[in-house]
Specification:
heterodimer; A: 295 residues; alpha/beta; Heat Shock Protein 90; 2 domains; B: Transcription Regulator spoIIAA; 48% helix
């Protein structure tokens, strides 16, 4: 049996839940067709999560590519199809292009080892200064901090996921509130073991009365817990939390059936600090959003 | 003799010729091992400048591996590995964020030296201990009586405080006197370390 998974027109962190609601009940070895023909836009989160979705399936899925030429071209520029071709059976015309996309700070990039993190950091430093300082009016100090945050979230894949994942970085206009404001977004997705299973693998781990994906996210993100006994561990995400706090940004992490968010002080986004009972998706999906500075 | 370790060179030597950023835990561990080998060649008593001037990015994992774990081996109140003193140089504002975070996590402190020659104590140090370090630093060389008078401590308490700062390798002890690590007197005094 083959099931068609309809992808919403606008594919970002919230709307990706519609995809997962369709996929989660299906057996892993059931063939799926991911239908993006009517997609009009995808955030870095949407693209990296689509790749993680294919990785999570036992049976190689089919991907119907977007029909709109500008969408297909944009996904090509993001290097999405380059990676998708290895994970999906692509159906439809893929518009290839060599033109650079100016809003893209980092194309969809595979992360599976420490060297990949070095490559990402080297690459982003060359592009981040202009995008963050000139386009988003942010203080020059942000470039290094931004790169540090990127490095830390990529390392989570290498250190904890147990398998490879994806990262992408882009600037775009956020239209959720206030009629649009530029943002820069880092998205990282992997289909690995996830936060709960990672903590459960800690030596001497003892299950609490209430223990679920939400609790595991709270322990890790808010209290710096780690599966390692080394007290130096768990500082990466704490540093990312401080970074988003200092720049009125937002950090959201989804793992298993829960999503936790460190919310901005400003009113450019409204979200719940913790959402539970979501459809199950393995691994972790991280999104960091930093808004432009407005006078 | 003052030893100088360029962290960027250690990175290129131990991990990759092309890297200039200190990111990822395996990279940090490899660089620390290289620094430790360098320290093994130096001897049992030494003052070493750890120079970050040519390092681009330093993330939290690398700061933990290189700075915190290095200090934890050589700076221990109970049984320090050897009498090695460190001065950290070329620390940028973004390096500082990662370093301060790991110092706080492990309750460590270190001395940084800046382009103007000024030395600063960063990390976790009690108010009175910090004051004692500053007094010794200003004096160039000091004894417990100097600190006792300035802070209003008993001589025994001042001596205990200076002994703790010495064990944390924030002060250098010569006979009964102390010199602050990173103070202007170090270049001339430090030659005595190997004597």
């Amino acid at each position: 049996m083959t099931t068609i998974i309809n992808v919403p027109h606008s594919l970002e962190d919230k709307s990706f839940e519609q995809v997962l609601d369709q996929v989660a009940p299906l057996p892993l070895d059931e063939k799926i067709i991911v239908d993006t023909r009517h997609a009009r836009w995808a955030s870095p989160y949407g693209l990296t999560a689509l790749l993680a979705l294919a990785q999570s399936r036992a049976e190689r899925p089919i991907l119907y590519v977007p029909e709109a030429e500008n969408v297909s071209t944009y996904w090509s520029r993001m290097d999405f199809f380059k990676h998708a071709a290895e994970l999906y059976e692509l159906q439809g015309r893929v518009k290839s292009t060599k033109a650079a996309e100016t809003s893209v700070l980092l194309e969809v990039t595979s992360i599976s080892k420490s060297d990949d993190v070095h490559s990402v950091v080297d690459k982003i430093q060359q592009r981040a200064q202009d995008a963050l300082v000139k386009n988003l009016n942010l203080d020059a100090k942000i470039t290094m901090r931004f790169t540090m945050a990127l490095s830390e979230v990529c390392q989570n894949i290498v250190e904890h996921a147990g398998r490879g994942g994806w990262v992408a970085v882009q600037t775009y206009t956020w239209r959720v509130r206030l009629g649009g404001r530029k943002v820069v977004v880092i998205a990282v997705a992997d289909p690995g073991i996830g936060f709960r299973q990672s903590l459960e693998s800690a030596p001497g781990f003892q299950r609490k009365d209430r223990w679920d994906d939400g609790q595991a996210l709270e322990e890790t993100v808010m209290r710096g817990a780690s599966r390692f006994r080394d007290p130096g561990r768990g500082q990466g995400l704490a540093g990312v939390r401080r970074f988003v706090g200092n720049w009125d940004g937002k950090l959201s992490i989804r793992s298993g059936t829960a999503r936790i968010a460190v919310l901005p002080k400003g009113d450019w986004d409204e979200d719940e600090p913790l959402v539970e009972d979501l459809s199950y998706f393995p691994g972790a999906q991280v999104q960091i959003t930093i808004p432009e500075r407005v006078a | 003799m003052i030893n100088h370790i360029d962290v960027s060179s250690m990175l290129r030597k131990s991990v990759c010729e092309l890297y200039s950023n200190l990111v990822t835990r395996p990279t940090g561990a490899a660089v620390r091992c290289e620094i430790e080998q360098e320290l093994d060649r130096i001897g049992d008593r030494a003052l070493t400048i750890i120079d970050f001037s040519h390092v681009g990015l330093l993330d939290f994992s690398c700061a933990d591996e290189i700075v915190a774990k290095l200090l934890l081996q050589y700076v221990s109140i109970d049984a320090p590995r050897r009498e090695v003193y460190f001065v950290f140089r070329g620390i940028s504002e973004s390096h500082m964020e990662a370093i301060e975070a790991v110092l706080e996590r492990h309750k460590l402190a270190l001395v940084t030296q800046h382009a103007d020659g000024e030395s600063r104590l960063i990390g976790i140090v009690g108010l009175e201990e910090r004051r004692a370090w500053e007094i010794i630093s200003q004096l160039g060389t000091g004894v417990s009586a100097d600190v006792a008078d300035a802070i209003g401590l008993s001589s025994a308490d001042a001596e205990r405080m200076l002994d703790t700062l010495w064990r944390r390798r924030l002060l250098i002890r010569y006979d009964n006197a102390y010199v602050a690590v990173g103070s202007a007197t170090i270049p001339s005094q430090a030659t005595r370390l190997d004597a």
